[in-house]
Amino acid sequence: MALIVQKYGGSSLETAERIRAVAERIVATKKQGHDVVVVCSAMGDTTDELLDLAAQVNPVPPGREMDMLLTAGERISNALVAMAIESFGAKAQSFTGSQAGVITTEKHGNARIVEVTPGRVREALDKGRICLVAGFQGVNRESKDVTTLGRGGSDTTAVALAAALKADVCEIYSDVDGVYTADPRIVSNAKKLEKLSFEEMLELAAVGSKILVLRSVEYARAFGVPMRVRSSYSNDPGTLVAGSMEDIPVEEATLTGVATDNSEAKITIVGIQDSPGAAAKIFRTVADAEINIDMVLQNVSAIENNLTDITFTCPRSEGPRAVEMLKKIQEAEGWANVLYDDQVGKVSLVGAGMKSHPGVTATFCETLRDHGINIELISTSEIRISVLIRESELPEAARALHAAFELGGDEEAKVYAGTGR
Amino acid sequence: MALIVQKYGGSSLETAERIRAVAERIVATKKQGHDVVVVCSAMGDTTDELLDLAAQVNPVPPGREMDMLLTAGERISNALVAMAIESFGAKAQSFTGSQAGVITTEKHGNARIVEVTPGRVREALDKGRICLVAGFQGVNRESKDVTTLGRGGSDTTAVALAAALKADVCEIYSDVDGVYTADPRIVSNAKKLEKLSFEEMLELAAVGSKILVLRSVEYARAFGVPMRVRSSYSNDPGTLVAGSMEDIPVEEATLTGVATDNSEAKITIVGIQDSPGAAAKIFRTVADAEINIDMVLQNVSAIENNLTDITFTCPRSEGPRAVEMLKKIQEAEGWANVLYDDQVGKVSLVGAGMKSHPGVTATFCETLRDHGINIELISTSEIRISVLIRESELPEAARALHAAFELGGDEEAKVYAGTGR
């Protein structure tokens, strides 16, 4: 008998019918003899609708009230799933984040979990009940106010509960049935991975895979909670995310997959006097606006005039704001120009096998060259290569790299409608 | 400076625009120098929508989960009103029933308030904040689970908070601007009352006035909390409900008003052997089905065969079920028949003045006779006369009685669209 934590996303809970389907799956797991704790997101578009209402009554709503408002969504979905479970003859009990002992930092809107003390959940499990815990929420220690965990918070709730309850596995259900070697909508023979390490999953999440939220994988890695990515529409075992890359024998280390990302924009500052502090000025300006920078390139300065260019990427949604901040200081800093390009895309190759296969970078670049694709920026980690190219060339690049590194399977991949968040 | 508790119903909070209007009114009260505690119902049809969803996932939803579900509605409206208040420059803080210290009995779906310990609310008031408390909900002492207070529970929350905080008044806002001598949609010159006693309001609520929920008036009377019925659309002072009938000098005691009710049905059991226990059997059967009985009539039995009839009224929605229960035992009990009539209506006259004016019952019956209206059942209390007539004759009866007792004003009454619950 295992203790299993299951997390269901909003699209799996969009209607009463889907809620009943999810409940049936939960009850089936319980009937296999396991203890089951379930974390549900808010139904379908509930959160967006509440955000919209809030914006109508106050364009700058106070954080504490925003959290009180948004957490209602998860209460609703969890109570409904509990009801549906009871209709299938099993016993269920729902808990708010606070009741489940999810203690967070004080900050509203983006609190971090400090501690999970799931005494009431444990007690209910011991009575043979299926426990439903509202995701995305907790209570802060000082003020005893309701807090939310920010984007993807329900995944983090699930992993944190799994860690606190010493669960055997944390299953993340969405409309995607696993982690693939590439996006099956782009690469038709993308293969579902049976297993990958936390490090590989972190790299994939960081370069655009939307399967799992980065923060939840970090949490799972820190506490050694195995995660399993599964679809709420099939019985496929999905993909296991567990173990450290260090534990994979060299001869078994492989390449994990190809990821694409078209959510970034490129900013280039032209004609910078190449002196100490020039780059720092740029990145401080952007950081002060709370904009994250991803890839960075600084050219070697031309000998004749000692001028250089700096190029970096940031989220496309923040691009115009970043440009505005930089244009403000352009004259004072003496830069020739600030250029903006939002037609870029990033293609990445991830895998622990990269460490033991020195030719990977060369093959990567040759493959793109053979397809006439120009590389604008390169960034690498121990187990990842990412390059910036034209957005329009992303699909071709992904297919070419996927084929060059022989990542594909023999079958056509199943393609799902949504993205599963 | 006074401490004022204000309660706003769902129709006053139907849209973002109305929420902003309510917030403006709350801030205006605060700016007059008063401490303000606000209790909000769920927005518009939220509760009905949640009930509908619950019915879809489980036709017999467990009470605990139902309460977890339904209380989300009040969290949403209270958080939104708090946000709107902040947008007008005042400080607001919202509380769940549990956070506000509303402790209830264990029973889900229809819990009763045991105690209110509003320490956190008091503290926030002392910091100059406007406090929003989610109505209709509390937390039970033993299980620490969320409970709901049943129909009209938000009114009860408001009165209970007012009592615990020793508030000067509890204002109940809806789309009706006071208590009238009759329903203005039926009697065009119905007059708004400036003031009435708790007993008179209780009698009116019991015989069909939907202005205030019976339970909240009972609570207010027990704790001596003055209530004021006001409209959220006007600045009219509304109607004050306060004081005991006993304290009204005889010469000032008047007739309060006429109320009509078409929510009941009439059941007659024909041919009952007139022996001890015959009536008890009927009422035990109905009581076991948790159906409330209102008016009762037992005929004098005919001498020749010692047979009698018993007639009673109950909620029309429960009528068919009551008949079904009685039909089941009809043969065993030897009754001739069980008759059902849902075309009945009840018209009532209420007022402390009745005690000192002995001719009221006579005038009441003569008035109906003069209009050719037949009385089917009569029931009375010290300050009330109610009769059962044909439903179709209700408007005429109300107008005739209103005129006969000279309850009307000189002006046409304002007529509102909704009923204000």
Which strand-content bin applies to the residues of chain A?
15-25%
Structure annotation, total helices of chain A = 11
Enumerate the spans of chain A where pLDDT stays under 50 for 5 or more consecutive residues: 417-421
CATH superfamily of the domain at 3-175 in chain A: Acetylglutamate kinase-like
As an assembly, this protein is homodimer
Radius of gyration of chain A: 23 Å
Ends apart, CA distance between termini of chain A: 30 Å
Summarize the structure.
Chain A has 421 residues and is α/β, with parallel strands linked by helices. The first copy, chain A, is built from eleven helices and 20 strands.
Describe this structure in words.
The structure is a homodimer of 421-residue chains. Chain A has a domain at 3-175: Acetylglutamate kinase-like (Carbamate kinase). The first copy, chain A, contains eleven helices and 20 strands. Chain A has helices spanning 16-31, 46-57, 63-87, 119-126, 153-164, 198-206, 214-223, 278-288, 319-333, 360-370, 394-404; strands at 3-8, 35-40, 92-95, 102-104, 113-116, 130-134, 137-140, 146-148, 169-174, 195-196, 227-231, 239-241, 257-261, 264-273, 296-298, 307-315, 337-341, 344-350, 377-381, 384-390. In chain A, strand 1 (3-8), helix 1 and strand 2 (35-40) form a beta-alpha-beta unit. Chain A is globular, with a radius of gyration of 23 Å. The two termini of chain A are 30 Å apart. In chain A, 49% of the residues are buried. The A-B interface holds A 16-17, 19-20, 23, 50, 53-54, 56-62, 64-66, 68-69, 71-73, 75-76, 78-84, 86-87, 92-94, 96, 99, 144 and B 16-17, 19-20, 23, 50, 53-54, 56-62, 64-66, 68-69, 71-73, 75-76, 78-84, 86-87, 92-94, 96, 99, 144. Chains A, B: One of its GO terms (cellular component) is cytosol.
